[in-house]
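[audit] Reproducing an earlier prediction to check determinism. Same input, same settings, fresh worker. If the tokens differ from the archived copy the diff job will pick it up downstream; this log only records the rerun itself.
[audit] input (341 residues):
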Amino acid sequence: MRLYPFFIPHQGCPNRCVFCQQHHVSGQGEAPTADQVRRQLEVMLPEKGDGQVAFYGGSFTMLPSEVQRAYLEAVVPCVKAGRVSGVRVSTRPDGLGRAQVKLLRGFPVATVEIGCQSFCDHVLRRAGRNTRAAEVAPAVGMLREAGIAVGLQLMPGLPGAGPGEAVESLVYALALEPDFLRIYPTLVLRGTGLEKAYRQGTYRPLDLGRAVEVCAEMFWRCHRAGVPVIRLGLQATAELDWQGALVAGPYHPAFGQLVRSHLWLRALRRVGSCTAEVGVHPSELSDALGQRRCNQQALQEEFGDYLIQPKAGVTRHNLDFSGRQVSLWELAAYEGSDSID
């Protein structure tokens, strides 16, 4: 689905979490006014379309009600004209009481993304989140009753998170049957409380390799549960890439590909002892080979001759070897002692 995002950095947020610096993440300084949103929509939207106008970067439902209404009313004419199908907003679980959900229901709000970050109360306290894990389920229930789709956001690697916290939080999230997930490994951004803790030596972020491993298992478990992951890692921005906003942490502009390639490597290793040639769908060759062919190189070092090549007739997410196709997800499975602990 096409999204038309508007960023309202920190607007509506009752406090600043230790990891949060929305100006760097969004690459935007100030929130637009409702009139500015209206004018931009006239330019950016197609004549007909089924996308959503999205308000990101703050806690939308904790804005004053008149501000929420002004933003939403700016989009209504575009929905009535068929130029866009609805609105998407992001918020916190404690910003979704019955009155707030009722307000959303009075407008064409189709999706709400909830920033859960973790389902461990200790981790939430350390992050300065000032929410509790128990607040998520009632919020999801009210949105479901209102006919609004729900997305959940998780952040592996927050302060105080033990080795198994990411998967444990994911289990809780999947039990709520969200429509989708976003997974963002925690980064240390300039101007945050986390930067201070990092420079004092009291916080250490996940390194890139470990973050890829953790998110690969999460991604695999989401697939098994039938819940799509619509984003892995932060969207690249000029500030993150070039202007020093990133202090430390597992940032990579192609983080999602690294995660997918890690799953391919797990699968390819498991057939390496019985074949020297594997065929994959042409569109997945890059992921299977790994960035700069790192998977191919690792497999050749382990097994000698090992060829990964595109092959006609292979369905996506499958490996063809020895005359048969086997599912990537089956071969890359995380079970028992092989899961992250």
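[audit] rerun output stored. Observation attached for the diff report: DSSP finds 14 helices and 13 strands in the chain.
[audit] end
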